[in-house]
Structure prediction request, 367 residues.
Amino acid sequence: MTIVPVSLGARSYDVRIESGLLDRAGEALVPYASGRPFLVVTDEHVAAAQWPRLDTALRRAGLAAELVTLPAGEATKSWPHLEALTDRMIAHGIERRDHVIALGGGVIGDLVGFAAAIVKRGCAFIQIPTTLLAQVDSSVGGKTAINSRAGKNLLGAFHQPSLVLIDPETLDTLGAREVRAGYAEVVKYGLIDDVAFFEWCEANGPALLAGDPDARAYAIARSVAAKAAIVAQDERETSGRRALLNLGHTFGHALEAETGFSDRLLHGEGVAAGMALAFSYSLRRGECSGQDAGRVVAHLRAAGLPASLRDAGVDAPGARLVDHMLHDKKMSGGTLPFLLARGIGQTYLAKDVDLADVAAFLDEVRG
Ligand code: NAD
Ligand code: GLY
Prediction:
């Protein structure tokens, strides 16, 4: 078992990572039981693929649970589902010290975390992430949200879980495209500030994507450790440190918006293409070498991820893509900070980016 602490004073918690952990989750959850059955919230795919394992583990430990199964998909991060879930939590008689369990990908984790943040002004929750994206990113760090009519993740709160249980074996039932999309967030940690990890990805990414258990466990543990360190330094994204985790997200957000936040381009795929564009744009600004920008594109493509506008299925004028960026929630004082790179492992926050120049760049790379 690898245990990664997230050090946040009174809000500190552990991320436990171990193959087969879901089958032993009962023991890990005993200290969090309150006498009332746990509410376990999941989606219909995970209910079929993974809930039986958790159900058995809870029973074996003598713990009772009630399962809430929601539709799978991004549309579940919405007001109607938040309202229904919070009603259910209140009807369950939940108290602040009770723990709601989120069993699923980033959609379930974000929704349950936000519900936990607001019911009775904040009750406790536990993350059991079942997608690679959720295991390496969204289950750690306490960002919770639903989508509003005006955009993604516009309604939310910072609310830390009490515990994160990661069983890499849950990925055995996840589709290959979803695994690849999550892998983009793994590569991100190497690109931000860890060139040695990017080199590890170049050497071991194919094994990870093929389901090699050691490669999977190592990548998850290293990614979680990287995220935990950043979150501990800048929990609420105020110093600029946590903003580094948004590498590829501004370009990616524009691509996701252009493709209607749909299955045409998964979030991780948008991040992959966005990271490649961030490196290409850094090259154009003379800040990053062509060799490094080329390595990023080559590795993402080798992993089966999009690394250009064309790969992402986007053929739109630069001005329109920049217009999507203006609706990004990272806009600050009318300007948009960009994550750019001086090389692999040398990402930095650029506050001097001229959006007309970004539009011109996007037109250049459109063809
Ligand atoms: P998701 O939760 O929609 O899961 C993807 C699909 O995989 C769904 O159909 C789901 O039912 C299925 N699934 C999940 N686990 C499975 C398993 N083990 N076996 C079989 N099927 C399984 O998507 P996601 O990529 O995990 O998360 C995307 C969401 O995460 C977005 O809403 C994004 O905004 C959010 N996010 C949040 C943060 C954060 O810091 N809070 C960070 C990144 C992304
Ligand atoms: N996924 C970005 C963050 O947690 O800050």
